[in-house]
Specification:
Strand order of the largest sheet: 28-32-26-39-36-37-38-47
Shape: globular
Number of helices: 39
Strand content: 15-25%
Distance between the termini: 52 Å
């Protein structure tokens, strides 16, 4: 290592830290290595890579440090993906593995697992660590603190509700004293007087928290279609770990049968309600909670005392005790050619830092690495010299002056928050208004993990134009203090108003360091506020942010003013014209307000093509914020004006939101021992402890190579040449493969219209053109950028509207015609026409797509390990690519970290790539996509555009519909025809339309091939229809719910695809139940009353049904298979054709096997899905996997049960292990294969005849929202759902599927906007720009019920259950339609009479931008860009 002259005082190149209690030393750490990469490289794979930019929280770990300034130990949750390894010197890192194991879990891990908080499990370790960190800092947090600790964590599966439920058990350790479950789903301790109330008494095994044991009966196999009578059942019970046991009593320590009168001297049995009237969801939850282990914070891993001495520099040094000491660091890159940093320094003092900057004045200073890390990851940024400054105590000083407070530049935002709270409490609200404004904006600044490491100097020094804090600092009159070695460490001060010189340019001179930020305290008559608007309320960067300040004197004359905005220019700016308009005016004078708004509007107007887009919206936000500020400050100053009366509305969005709560309701299961019970996911504990393995967690095989992709930069282009010479010249690069290296078939997918690797043309930005094999992922990716591909650009089409206009579509047409549409139009009282659009949606499974192919070394055999929903297609395509038989390829799927349809077909391409690489290298090859790569390549939900014409009677009866619908299929067919078929067949939703002419086409565009996504076209078809109904209802002047109810199907009606509705049609029943149970009529009155008295906040209500057909559209896919082995020790191994992606399929299949074989659940094991044990399988999709594989498992188990019956009957009372041993010795075959095919299925699209769907899963949702009409931000106040799932296989898992699907549908319809640059490059490439719902976006009150008592006689499914994965997703659109209802209320205040306004046309997703601009008020009209200024110009980003 070379040490420069400036670094003479730097004497170390090694780092020392503790990891899960063990001391670790790393010599000269790789400067490119993050903490996440290090952890995974040493086998701690529980910490996951979800995005690589600190936006999802999957990589969360706890880092503890000793703060010498505060003389305390600080525990922080951090994103390991952004944490350079060298930053943990002197710290203690705790990962999910350091907490516990599946056999001995930490209470956090236990509770999240047992209360159903883990589905796919990929995000789970991050949630565990966020909650764990909170508890280390505060062992008794309140519920709000618990909710907010997750604001940096994303989950795509659960809908967050069960995670929050589990976490909130730490807020009140009710399980210590006995529990009850409130009606709102929360857990409550017994009363203070010691009474048990309706809960348990607190004794383990309390009989009030038990289920009655089922009596013993002779062994028999039951028909899975017919109901099961308890009289012929077995004595199955739910054990303490959620599994089913055969003990006569339930749970642990329950043998006494009651509490022993230890509660008030009364046996709790005497207080017990009738079991039949109990809500099983509450009972199961109480059972689990009563068994929680005690959380004892004194038993946690301590902060190593040595590290305190190490950080203080007081370690023992001597001949006998030579402990290492914390020293400044100086490290040189091991490979300067590929490293993003050539030399690195970590000083420990300010003089040391200034000395380095004297010699390297252009060095990059890094503290939290939250911005630099993203630049390196996504922009491939490089910095010759980097200096880490977070261990310098002089930069973390806080000094209070008489009239101001100076904050050290390097205090973290989390520390800043707590300090602001303290100062506000100390000095009072008036003097600390600027500090309070800073605190308000900090609340929604990124997530906890970012706030824990990012510093206040970060966005100041980088001159971020969208900083949340810079506008507030500027408005507050703050100044920065700078210091440098060149000035002999003299300090200079620069006002924030003069600090920002341009885009990413500041007044800092080379070699200067930002020492502190000083914020003045406020004087009498001064008012300060901050406002921010983002795409998502929590953990999101600002669209527009501002800090606004005035000071008034006598008679409310404005003496000083500052209006600062971010997001409106290349840097933070002052609205000087608006400030000039205000200065000297009388605050409260309406004329002054008008002058300010006009001036602000004029100087903040943006060009249509402005970077970042949203020109009209951003302009409207500036005046909306100024208007809010006016109203609030007039109220604070007690100035009489009309706007002051609405001040409470203006700040309500920034007030404390109510805590979320959930309620689940389903009835007890009396007719089965196992099936139907709410057993938790069988892998949940392994997922919460980090033991569950995913593709990239598999240890590397010796000699394994990494693969990287050479990706097209063009949307459409001719490939002229490919030159890989520069890449191949790099040491460690083994080969670069192109289409010429494919030995077999280079085309794939159903229509064989897509090349594995393109030979002549590329068809979208990001299309893989070549494959690079190298010794490491970093090397492979670096080499991929050296491959020179010459292109000749060709014309491209991106959007579905443009494609439809130009006739750019595939040949296939799907049409449903019934009756005489034209005649019905002629007879109709009204005929309306319109159009509908819904955008794409990214799957955002937390585990990106990946594949590993391992050659077996003989006979051309390969093992493919893939994150795929379709192992059979992966097997077949890999075989075709190599030109070998499928029997040579075995595809293995252990589990996926989410799929949602996105891994049904597009994942196959990765397996083809790795298999091709393994074939040529004869070595194992691994390819796991980065998040941005995955989003560019994988394909999304299809955008749909439709034109409709509808005839109705004056009473609202639908008479005829003509619809022309178009989907954006992308560049190839993929599964687009199937998606189109489901959209066309779901455009009726739940309504009878006697005359229909529906035609659908798939458009061909130059985007990635869009693919399957949960609901698979059904939600698009239903949304288009429901949007039409809303517009028709507006034109008819009737409530849309009335229109829906008037046209709802009844039993016996026939759908447009010729399928009669039988007695399984339950939507009318659920609709009526919802209206009654959720008090629809009363709440409609309340919402209308709220809207009448609230001017700028509006509420909306929407009652929405859904009908989702269950079956594959391709007949031959409607089959399942299973293979079941019973071993001599009585254990059972089940293999089936379905894959586990978090939906609980393996759990349900194990329950079916246990029920059928009359065994406890823990006797059943499912290892993986593999094509050598389950051949010719259908993809795990279409919500049919439980049906298909469940019956196959049942059939196999029934055969085994029949074989074993003579032995069980002759050996009554003997353990199953002994029975199976005897059967084996008697040469009984203990292996059985099961197969199932759906009867009667098959549909002819040309003739419109046959059975398209085996049955329908149905539901109804009622959503209530509140909309801030000045910003477009909204809160989902409450959602009620009733879902018909037949006789559920696992009610708790099905409830989880409902909640998760709803959240995904809510995101699709509101926040998840998928945007492209006009040239075809994806703009929304990660969580920074693409916003799935967070834990704070879900309904504040979320109630889910399962329909009970419905007629299931027509259901010929496994145990009369129904598929549930996809059907609830469309109900998330109830939030979209509730928002539409709120916008309608807002439009009543428009200057234009409502009857003269155009019918409200709302397109999904209804982002804050869409909602704000739809409100049609004066501020929006001021912000409108004239059409003439838009013509012929292309905006910054486009929807497709």
């Amino acid at each position: 290592m070379t040490i420069d002259k400036s670094a003479a005082t730097f004497s170390s190149s090694s780092i020392l830290f503790y990891l899960n209690g063990k001391r670790m030393t790393v010599e000269s750490p790789d400067l490119d290595m993050t903490l996440l990469q290090y952890l995974r490289s040493i086998g701690l794979t529980g910490t996951k890579l979800g995005c690589g930019e600190g936006g999802c929280g999957a990589c969360t770990v706890m880092v503890s440090r000793y703060d010498a300034v505060e003389a305390s130990i600080i525990h922080t949750s951090v994103n390991a993906c952004l944490c350079p390894l060298y930053t943990v010197d002197g710290k203690h890192v705790i990962t999910v593995e350091g907490l516990g194991t599946a056999k001995n879990p930490h209470p956090v891990q236990e509770r999240i697992a047992l209360l159903h908080g883990s589905q796919c499990g990929f995000c789970t370790p991050g949630f565990v660590m966020s909650l764990y960190t909170l508890l280390r800092n505060n062992p008794t947090p309140n519920e709000r603190e618990i909710e907010e600790c997750f604001d940096g964590n994303l989950c795509r599966c659960t809908g967050y509700r069960p995670i929050l439920d589990a976490a909130k058990t730490f807020a009140d350790q009710a399980w210590k004293r006995g529990t009850t479950v409130n009606q709102d789903g929360s857990v409550r301790a017994k009363e203070a007087d010691g009474s048990a109330g309706e809960g348990g008494c607190g004794i383990d095994g309390c009989c009030r928290l038990q289920k009655s044991a089922v009596g013993e009966a002779p062994f028999s196999v039951r028909d899975p279609v017919a109901p099961y009578s308890a009289t012929n059942g077995t004595n199955g019970t739910i054990g303490t770990n959620g599994t089913i046991g055969t003990n006569a009593t339930n749970g642990t320590n329950a043998t006494n049968g009651c509490c022993g009168g230890k509660t008030n001297g009364v046996c709790c049995k005497s207080q017990e309600k009738s079991q039949d009237k109990d809500n099983l969801a509450e009972i199961e939850k109480a059972q689990v909670i009563s068994r929680f282990q005690t959380y004892d914070p004194t038993q946690e891993l301590i902060f190593p005392p040595f590290l305190i001495r190490y950080c203080k520099g007081k370690t023992a040094v001597g001949d006998d005790n030579n402990e290492p000491q914390m020293k400044p660091l100086a490290i040189t890159a091991k490979d300067p050619a590929t490293s993003w940093c050539q030399r690195f320094y970590r000083p420990l003092t300010l003089p040391g830092l200034l000395e380095i900057l004297r010699d390297y004045p252009e060095a990059k200073l890094v503290a939290g690495n939250s911005e630099v890390g993203v630049e390196i990851k996504l922009k491939r940024a490089k910095f010759a010299t980097q200096v880490y400054v977070n261990d310098i105590p002089e930069l973390r000083q806080i000094t209070e002056h008489a009239d101001s407070v100076s904050f050290g530049a390097n205090i973290t935002l989390a520390h800043f928050e707590h300090t602001l709270d303290r100062l506000i409490a100390k000095h009072g609200r008036q003097r600390t208004q600027s500090l309070a404004a800073l605190r308000d904006n900090l609340r929604y600044f990124a997530g906890n993990q970012i706030r824990n490491v990012a510093t206040i100097a970060g966005n100041i020094a980088t001159a971020s134009p969208i900083s949340d804090l810079n506008p507030v600092f500027m408005a507050a009159g703050a100044h920065v203090t700078l210091v440098s070695q060149a000035q002999k460490q003299k300090q200079r001060q620069v006002p924030m108003s003069e600090f920002f010189l341009g885009y990413r340019r500041t007044a800092m001179q080379p070699g200067e360091v930002l020492l502190a930020v000083t914020v003045p305290l406020n004087a009498r008559g001064e008012c300060v506020r901050a406002f921010k608007q983002a795409k998502r309320k929590d953990d999101d960067i600002a669209i527009v942010t501002c800090g606004l300040r005035i000071r008034v004197g006598a008679a409310n004359v404005v003496e000083d003013v500052a209006f600062a905005f971010g997001g409106m220019a290349p840097t933070t700016v002052l609205a000087k014209n608006a400030m000039a308009a205000a200065l000297g005016g009388t605050w409260g004078d309406r004329a002054l307000l008008d002058r300010m708004l006009a001036a602000c509007q004029d100087e903040m107007r943006l060009d249509y093509t402005v970077p970042g887009g949203m020109a009209e919206y951003r302009t409207a936000l500036t005046t909306s914020f100024l208007f809010k500020f006016w109203a609030v400050t007039c109220s604070d100053l007690e100035v009489a004006c009309a706007e002051a009366a609405h001040a409470a509305e203006m700040v309500q969005d920034d007030a404390e939101r109510m805590l979320s709560k959930g309620q689940q309701e389903y009835a007890s299961v009396a007719d089965r021992a196992i099936v139907g019970k709410g057993v938790q996911h069988l892998a949940a504990l392994r997922q919460t402890t980090g033991e569950a393995r995913y593709i990239d967690d598999m240890p590397a095989v010796h000699g394994e190579l990494a693969m990287a992709l050479v990706m097209s930069p063009h949307a459409h282009a001719q490939i002229v040449s490919i030159d890989a010479a520069k890449a191949l010249a790099v040491d460690g690069v083994h080969s670069v493969l192109t289409w010429r290296d494919v030995p077999g078939e280079n085309k794939w997918n159903i229509f064989h219209d897509e090349e594995i690797l393109p030979s002549e043309e590329v068809h979208y930005v990001g299309q893989p053109v070549a494959l690079v094999l190298a010794d490491s992922q970093k090397l492979a990716q670096s080499a991929a950028r050296l491959v020179c591909v010459v292109y000749e650009p060709l014309p491209a089409i991106l959007g579905v509207r443009e494609a439809a206009q130009k006739g750019a579509w595939f040949d296939e047409v799907r049409q449903l015609q019934n009756g005489d549409v034209d005649a019905a139009f002629a007879e109709a009282d009204s005929v309306f026409e319109g159009e509908s659009y819904c955008g794409p949606q990214e799957h955002f499974y937390l585990e990106t797509m990946g594949s590993i192919t391992v050659p077996k070394g003989e006979d051309g055999e390969f093992d493919v390990y893939a994150s795929t929903q379709n192992p059979t297609e992966a097997q077949m395509v890999c075989a075709e690519v190599l030109g070998v038989s499928a029997s040579r390829i075995v595809c293995h799927v252990k589990r996926m970290g989410g799929g949602f349809g996105g891994k049904e077909s597009r994942s196959v391409l990765l397996s083809a790539f790795t298999t091709l690489g393994a074939h040529h290298s004869n070595r194992s090859v691994r390819l796991v996509l980065d998040r941005d790569e995955d989003m560019q390549i994988s394909g999304q939900r299809h955008p749909f555009y439709g034109q409709w014409k509808v005839g109705v009677s004056r009473t609202g009866q639908l008479l005829a519909l003509r619809a022309r619908i178009f989907s954006n299929g992308g560049f190839s067919h993929d599964l687009s025809i199937g998606v189109l078929e489901r959209a066309v067949s779901h455009i009726d939703n739940c309504y009878r339309i006697p005359n229909t002419d529906i035609v659908g086409r798939v458009c061909r565009t130059n985007t990635q091939s869009n693919t399957a996504f949960r609901s698979f076209g059904g939600c698009q078809g239903m949304l288009m229809l429901e949007s039409m109904l809303c517009e028709v209802a507006d034109k008819l002047r009737m409530p849309v719910e009335q229109l829906r109810e008037a046209n709802m199907y009844r039993v016996g009606d026939v759908t447009p695809f010729s399928q009669p509705l039988d007695s399984d049609w339950n939507v009318p029943q659920m609709w009526a139940q919802m209206k009654e149970r959720a008090c629809f009529a009363e709440r409609r009155i309340e919402v209308d009353a709220f809207n009448a008295r609230s001017r700028f906040r509006k509420r909306g209500l929407s009652l929405l049904p859904t009908k989702f057909g269950i079956s594959f559209g391709v007949k031959h896919l409607n089959q399942g298979m299973a293979l079941v082995h019973v071993y001599m020790d009585g254990s059972v191994l089940v293999a089936h054709g379905g894959t586990e992606m978090g939906q609980g399929l393996h759990t349900k299949m194990a329950m079916v096997a246990a029920e059928t074989l009359e065994l406890p659940l823990d006797a059943i094991f499912i290892s993986e899905t593999a094509t050598n044990t389950a051949a010719n399988t259908s993809p795990t999709a279409a919500s049919a996997s439980s049906d298909l594989n469940g019956f196959a498992v049942y059939n196999a188990c029934k055969e085994l049960a029949d074989r074993l019956r003579p032995y069980r009957e002759s050996m009554k009372g003997e353990p199953f292990k002994k029975i199976t041993k005897v059967a084996y010795l008697d040469r009984c075959n203990l292996t059985a294969a099961g197969h199932y095919k759906v009867p009667d299925i098959g549909f002819n699209w040309q003739k419109n005849e046959g059975l398209l769907y085996f049955y329908f899963t149905q539901g109804v949702a009622l959503a209530e929202v509140e909309l801030d009409t000045l910003t477009g931000a909204h809160t989902t106040l409450r959602v009620d759902i009733i879902m018909d799932v037949g006789k559920s296989l696992n009610k708790a898992i099905d409830v989880g599927q409902i909640e998760g699907a709803f959240a995904q549908g809510q995101g699709w319809a509101t926040t998840e906007e998928f945007l492209y640059f006009p040239g075809g490059r994806l703009f929304t490439q990660g969580p920074g720009n693409y916003k799935i719902p967070s834990a704070m976006d879900i309904p504040r009150d979320f109630r889910v019920s399962l329909l009970e008592g419905a007629d299931t006689s027509m259901l010929k499914t496994i145990f009369s259950s129904k598929g549930i994965g996809e059907p609830p997703l469309f109900l998330g659109a109830s939030v979209f339609f509730a928002l539409r209802d709120a916008v309608l209320a807002a439009r009543k205040h428009s200057a234009v009479p409502v009857e003269q306004l155009p019918t409200l046309h709302l397109e999904a997703p209804a982002t804050p931008e869409i909602l704000r601009l739809a409100c049609e008020d004066e501020l929006v009209e001021m912000a409108r860009i004239p059409t003439a200024l838009k013509e012929g110009r292309v905006p910054f980003t486009v929807r497709i």
